[in-house]
Design goal:
Length: 512
Amino acid sequence: MRVVSSIEMARIETLAYSDGVNAEKYMLNAAIGVFQILIKLIKEKKLPQKITVIAGKGNNAGDALVVAKYLLKKGYDVKIFQLFPIDEASKLLKKQYDNFIKENGKVIFVKNIDDLAFEDGGENENECKKNTFILDAILGTGFKGELTGFLLDVVNKINEKSKELNLKVISIDIPSGLNGNTGKATPIAIRSDITIYLGLAKIGFFINDGPNYIGNLIYVDFGLDEKYKRLAKIKLEYMDKINLKNLLPKIDKKRHKYEAGFVIGIAGSEGMYGAAKLSSLAALRSGSGIVKMITQKEVPSSFYELVNFVIDFENIEDILAIISKADSVFVGPGLGRDEKVENFLFKILPKINKKTILDADSLFHLANNLKMILPKDSVLTPHKNEMKRLLKIEKEIGDEELIEKTKKFSEEKNVIIVLKGYPTIIFHPKKDPLTILGGDPGLASAGTGDVLTGMIASFASQRLDLYNASVLAVNMHFKAAEIATKEKTSYSLIATDVIEYLPKAFKFVLNN
């Protein structure tokens, strides 16, 4: 799915209008799509059958009123809070308002903040919790300013009441108050559980404040012709839907352990062997047949499945001889930051001719010496601060600038970069950056990045190219975390939990 700025989305829609496309047709198409999604959510996710629409004065609200009319005709209880007089509304909104009223729809004009009453005139709050969800149609993707006064009060009240009464909030196209170009919420936006976005995803979903407000994303095609989409200047690509089962490495029933995927790890040092063990165990749990760890001292209390070679880093040729038999290599978790390690990396990395994943301390040393020649087939897995260090950025910069600079770095170094975080963005020197949502806040825990490194190395060892190995690993890492937190909660998730729940993540993918 292509990702564009709100400005770019408006530009290509204007091109369509100039070619004679009817704006109302787009509105009706969008409304049908949103309506169908809401019906599905009501039935499959046990969403309440009472709908409260909060409407602004633009075409975003027009979409919502068409949806409200369809819901009304289906027998659902629909109530609209109209925040502005209809004479201030867009032409299309006025028309849809009239159509809704003709169906005996209920509209409450909100003159002050107290008129916005989700308890419905004294209705029992427990009943309200069971029977209501909010459809946000206040501000669309054209909003660029700062929420103040009445609208700020409205957004604050929706956020407070939805939390207090456990009301689900669904936004049409974008959470009201979020800037679709910058991802900034100044000072706040609607905190949506679901954003039903129209046409193309907006860059503001994925940068700066955006991920905190959008909830889950669901796509609606409102009929914009593909030729206009192709004219759009792309910021990112968004991984909307994919069949992960098709990405999983194929299993040969006759294989032996070396054919199942042979991974070498160069990682671990005194006091930091845990990181190396996490990467190794994650590689095995992700399907690799064997993992051999190269360290300068013996790994204490290692798990049975790990093979440990103790080799001084001065013996580069001995290490390369072992690597030559492997399918993939990961370098860096817990490796250490002393000068000897940096000199070792400077000498050995140009000689590695296997798919290589560079993480943690290897990135630290690379940032110290960007003249290092990297293996031809490399993935770097930095989090944002590590990426800023690689880019020599010391000041605060916005996410969009970081994305642009990381893309350039990927192209110049000819490497894939997995920029870890929420969302995670994968950069390829010859592709648009790919953003992936998912996982859980509990992944902000020591060692989870080491787990991801082992997973990428594992899938690479099982004959996937590094890009697909990275895409699959990020998704499976997220899925394992999501499953784990259903039992462990976000507070208690740790890196070993992600590994423990990988079998359930694989089972989920195989059964869906």
